[in-house]
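Example record for the data management plan.
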Amino acid sequence: MWFNPSEIYALLTMQHLRSNLELGVLTPKVQPLVARLHKLLSSHDNSYDEIERRARIINIGARRMKLKFFELAAISTFQRKRLEISYRARATDETTAREVSPQRIVFYRGNWFLDAWCHFRKDLRTFSIDGIREGKLLEIPAKNVDDSDLDAHLGSGYGILSGKDVEWAQLKFSPAAARWVHSEEWHPQQKSSTEADGSYVLEIPYSGDQELVMDILRHGENVEVLAPEALRARVKAKLCAAAKAYG
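Corresponding structural encoding:
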């Protein structure tokens, strides 16, 4: 018996992460795990070297940036201390000073984020760790937010940038696109139906629409936003701007 898809994906992902591991305090600790991983990936019929040659994990879209303040964000999260940061938001290109109480670090779509209580905004926020320009650990206990409140606020809508004010998007995919999209999970609470002509209607909750709009646009003419009207208008404006760029 050989690996099932989830097992080989997990093992190859661990190997991929290990090969990209920078030298640090964990390096000597990891070596026994590497040997064990090689053994797991080998069998009497398949050598580790052959599997490494013939199977690949490909990550596309991850931002290859030096996370100068990742360690500081992790330490403040696990030691439950507040963090003072200078943060540049890509959406507005503005840099602001924030004092935050870290709640958890999140690896999402190949990038690291920090979920935190922002004492400046008096609310929960998600910060991209590569957007932190300066950081300082404060000897002030972090404000704790219950996991249920974190999930309700940050996990209720679509994507990494969600919030409490949730709307539902209704998307209609063409029969051609439906063959792929019907097996995708866009959100754990999504609803879906297939129409007589083979088109696929997907309903998903969202708060901030930035990430959702980008994922809608990648389907081009194969998707139509049915509701709400504000999301439909935003996607239409983006498509018109794109068409204008081509003359």
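Summary line stored alongside the record: The two ends are 57 Å apart (CA to CA).
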